[in-house]
UniProtKB/TrEMBL annotation:
Topology versus the membrane: Multi-pass membrane protein
GO cellular component, one term: plasma membrane
Protein name: GlsB/YeaQ/YmgE family stress response membrane protein
Entry keywords, A to Z: Cell membrane, Membrane, Transmembrane, Transmembrane helix
Subcellular location: Cell membrane
Transmembrane segments: 6-22, 29-50, 56-78
Family: Belongs to the UPF0410 family.
Principal subcellular localization: membrane
Amino acid sequence: MSSWFWWIIIGIAAGWIAGLVMKGSGYGLLGDLIIGAIGGWIGGYVFGLLKIPSSGIWGALITAVIGAILLIAVVRAIRGGRR
C-alpha cells in the first residue's frame, strides 16, 4: 500500500511541475496524476536507453517530470497548439 501512495504523490507532483514548466499551471489533480504517471514511464524508458541511473524518491520525481515534459511537448506538436 505504501508504494501506491508514493506512486500517486510522485505522479501528481511530476504532472504539476511539468504543467508549470510547459504552460504556467497544472492540469488539475487527475490530469496531473495521469500526466505524471505516463511521464514516469516515458522518463524511465528514456533514462534506460541513455543509461542514466535514477533511484529513490527524488530520482523518480526527476525522471517523471522529464518524461511528463516530453509527453506534453509531443502532444502539443501533434495537436498543433498549447493544450
